[in-house]
Model the fold of this input.
Amino acid sequence: MLAGVFLLCFLSDFLLTSRAQYAPDEVTDLPGMTFKPSYRQWSGYLQAGPGKFLHYWFVTSQRDPTKDPVVLWLNGGPGCSSLDGFLSENGPFHVNNDGATLYENEFSWNKYANVLYLESPAGVGYSYSDDQNYKTDDDKVAADNYQALQSFFVKFPNFTLNEFFIFGESYGGIYVPTLSLRVATGQAKINFQGFSVGNGLSSFALNDESLIYFGYYHGLFGEDLWRDLNDNCCNKGGCNFYNSSSDSCKIQVCVCVCVCVCYSGPRLSSVSLNAVPPCINSTAQTNWLNRGDVRKALHIPATLPAWDICSDAVGEEYNILYWTVKDVYLKLLSMGLRALVYNGDTDMACNFLGDQWFVEDLVRAINSEVRSKHPLCGRSIGMNCLICPSFVLRDQQCLDQQSVTTLIVETVFMAYFCAFKLQPPLIVVKSC
Ligand SMILES: *[C@@H]1O[C@H](CO)[C@@H](O)[C@H](O)[C@H]1NC(C)=O
Ligand SMILES: *[C@@H]1O[C@H](CO)[C@@H](O)[C@H](O)[C@H]1NC(C)=O
Ligand SMILES: *[C@@H]1O[C@H](CO)[C@@H](O)[C@H](O)[C@H]1NC(C)=O
Done:
């Protein structure tokens, strides 16, 4: 009897609080917004562990929020904010150069999906922890994000039945599959369907190795340097620019790195992996996000420090555990999950060629059991378009391939990447 009463109280309590939980986070007015949005949005915090609070910004779909998928978006770094993705890549609006007014983004992903932007890990952007200890690693980030995700579905129980996808870019190439594996193998009831990575860091070796070819074929290195590279790093037609034991090769690679000023990979460069991406101008977004009235509208506690696109505290102490996510992909694919690997062809921090090699290597490693779950696996259609179920597309080819990809990926949801040329043009050069 007592237990019954308790359960009843608990249930009504839960229903009341779960509803009330998201209400205070609703964003009703945003400074600089001169248009009326056709979607709802919430900004607030998701608990990711004791004393750990991750800032989220959730926008509903402009189409059909109840039927459209929920997509989690993660930028990389490690230590950079997913609000960069919101305010200058795939979010519903961007900040004008004046740092004060907003304009609508016609390529917004929330035209087809409810999108959850999560500033992760704690210490990034407006996310924080009470103890301000921001030392973390890949596994801890995945565990924290998994907890935050569960907090999200407790806060927004209406969205638990929607299909759920995890997307990210750059160092998100590590965040996305590692979190996906937690979600796919964890206890939480999440309607997880698949994951996707754009210009991701998937393998340090392949990324660094391909960068040299990328640089040469983009005209960054002259013939002399290219000859020196080949003389010192290659043997019998095979090259190793990534971790050659030859000092003379290391020197040539170092020269390349000096040429690639925008590159900030950890192995080839003395530039910290965590440095703020040198080729992104986030002045307007930073100015807007740091306005007192904007912070207030987004429910950011007044005690928190100013917003920055990347956090040195997080980046400098970050402990990398995965030098390749090949095994993580293989596990996820063997569970029948859908995956999409897409690349724009100008990013030099995580260049398309490294990801293309990664997908090709994956296709070779996939066993017949996985293949039977993905009948298209391993077939490639057109140049640079590998179908795994993962595939790599280059922006330019994307439009041409649209009908093919529509057919392949089955859902309109995936195909809209092509319809909208994958990414807004801002993805030029970014840090992983
Ligand atoms: C960066 O953006 C701000 C505001 O949009 C602009 O005023 C400034 O000139 C830009 N800086 C560079 C180096 O492009
Ligand atoms: C959840 O569903 C209820 C009942 O249909 C509705 O009143 C409420 O607005 C929904 N909340 C969200 C966040 O969509
Ligand atoms: C170089 O990298 C490859 C691929 O990651 C690895 O198998 C090999 O052991 C590494 N060699 C050295 C000398 O670090």
